[in-house]
Amino acid sequence: MTKDDLIAYAQALPKAELHLHIEGSLEPEMLFKLAQRNKVDIPFKSVEEIRAAYEFSNLQDFLDIYYQGMNVLRTEEDFFDLTMAYLNRARADNVRHAEIFFDPQGHTERGVSFDTAISGIVTALSMAKAQFGMTAKLIMCFLRHLPEEDAFKTLEQAENWLDRIEGVGLDSSEVGHPPSKFERVFKAARERGLKTVAHAGEEGPPDYVHEALDLLAVDRLDHGNRSLEDDALTARLAKEEMTLTVCPLSNLKLCVVDAMTAHPLKRMLDLDLRATVNSDDPSYFGGYVSDNFKAVIEALPLTREDVKTLAKNSFLGSFLSEGEKRAQLAAIETV
Ligand SMILES: Nc1ncnc2[nH]cnc12
Ligand SMILES: [Zn+2]
């Protein structure tokens, strides 16, 4: 199979996306439009100027512009439009199921209520299900650069929405904010029946991955790249069939890898890790799920079987029911 054939195969496969920050799908065109609609001042005169600002040398560089960008999101309608645009775009890549992060504290700390944000998002999720059968689950993330006490306040604000929230996650500036800082609030989330996931080993050391497993009892690990520096940890992740939500274009844009040819995805698969391919913040990192598949297929010696495994892993690692997983795995076999 040629690389072009493999890219077409990856595009055609039914897939789940498990690592997508909805605020990171805010395209420059929508950012510009919402700034005008809501009369919000932004330091850019054009869509081209916004795009030109998307050059990062590490995670914090990106986060600074990501939090600035989300400042144009003010109303329920803004969150609806944002979410609907992502779901339509993901659908074009044959994403059949998405587990979507949102950052409530990125909104509440600038005066936009938790209810405003989540109402717009869940309305779009329901509409996508009704209109084109795409399923989605919502994961609310705690910002790890803020105190645990603030995360507890966010969990309280979520109380009336627990039937629409699948789990909690942990994102933002990793180094200096280890998972141990959030052990109590993750325990409280689990007691409410929520699933748990956490970004770990993106920039942070393997110890942070150990903490995410041992102290937060995560059901899934976001990124996890630096786990590979620790052989015992790698063996444990394989044995426990822990899903890793890997984000190749994000890793390249944030300088987690020097070049796509140096990306560890193929190594992860060869080590029997349950790796998946995801877009993280597609509007900032240059592409959606199929663009991420294309980038790794072009740069790495991935086989047809590897690509199929990645698609299967995306459903196996999802929070769908066993029956729903079986149906999606069967659909993969027909491509
Ligand atoms: N890749 C990432 N890592 C940490 N926090 C984030 N928030 C949005 N994208 C993120
Ligand atoms: Zn992320």
From TrEMBL:
- Residue ranges of domain Adenosine deaminase in the record: 14-333
Residues holding Zn(2+):
H19, H21, H199, D280
Output the Gene Ontology cellular-component terms.
cytosol
Cofactor binding note from Swiss-Prot or TrEMBL = Binds 1 zinc ion per subunit.
Which residues are tagged with the site Important for catalytic activity? H223
Which EC number applies? 3.5.4.2
* Leading EC class: hydrolase
The keyword Zinc belongs to this UniProt entry's keyword annotation: yes
Which keywords label this protein?
Answer: Hydrolase, Metal-binding, Nucleotide metabolism, Zinc
Report the cofactors: Zn(2+)
Q: Which domain of life is it from?
A: Bacteria
The record ties this protein, via PANTHER family, to: ADENINE DEAMINASE
HAMAP family reported in the protein's UniProt record: Adenine_deaminase
Protein family (similarity comment): Belongs to the metallo-dependent hydrolases superfamily. Adenosine and AMP deaminases family. Adenine deaminase type 2 subfamily.
- What task does this protein carry out? Catalyzes the hydrolytic deamination of adenine to hypoxanthine. Plays an important role in the purine salvage pathway and in nitrogen catabolism.
What's the protein here called? Answer: Adenine deaminase
